[in-house]
Amino acid sequence: MASSSGRVNIVLDAEYAEKLRILAARTHVSPGTLARALLSSALDEADPSPRNVSALLDDIDGAFAKAQAGLEDVAKGRMVPLSEI
After folding, report:
1. Is there a single domain that holds both residue 28 and residue 54?
2. Taking the model in full, what pTM does it have?
3. Could you list the pLDDT tens digit for every one of the 85 residues in the chain?
4. Is residue 3 located within the same domain as residue 34?
């Protein structure tokens, strides 16, 4: 979740984390620096039109099921209000 400083925390699966670590080692930069550069480049090239954003979300494996599970958790009271975080 982004804060007012623009900071975003991203969790990579093990395969992508290892690729990032290897690329960072080859380029002699920290994985965080390389991740910022790669993400910035991808965002610069991304088309923010609703159609393209929807297609991007549709390509995320299990995204719909996770969203549905989140809605079920909220309906059953299994959540922590943002004010308590």
Report:
1. no
2. 0.56
3. 445 567 888 889 999 999 999 999 999 999 999 999 999 998 888 888 888 888 888 888 888 898 899 999 999 999 888 888 7
4. yes
